[in-house]
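User: Before I run my own analysis I want an independent prediction to cross-check against. Here's the chain; please return only the structure tokens and, at the end, one sentence I can use as a sanity check.
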Amino acid sequence: MEASVKQVSPESDASSELDFRPDPFPLLMETTQCPDCIGDEQLPVEARKFKYCRPPVLNDHFDDEHLGRRETAERRGEAIWCGHPKCRQEKFDHVDHFRGHVERVHGVSLRSSDQVAKRRQRQAARREKAHRGRQQKKLARKAVAKV
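Assistant: Structure tokens:
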């Protein structure tokens, strides 16, 4: 846990002191914190510091809420930025470079491109299966109504 150090100038009324309050947004994050939400100043502080119950749940959130924007930037040849308050100036050319940064610097492991692609395939298959099931039920209701 990082602590912020605050020194008051000797000219002020207070004597020099150290402020050992925990840093609300440490560079090294919990493995279940979102590297984008932590830097979103439009969110309340508690939402920015939120910890998901498990890393896969964090990854679901990141993939669903934040990854698409970075993938679009990569396809357009635009820079990809880290959203953490302490390294917003960090710029990346590829999503995988960003993932490596998040793991090395922030301690948060995000899904690889291959893992994301497999998850998306599974989601599409589930949606298709559910759609077929709804269609079959609709046909069955029509058949019963005709009888």
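Sanity check: The chain has two domains: 26-111, 113-147.
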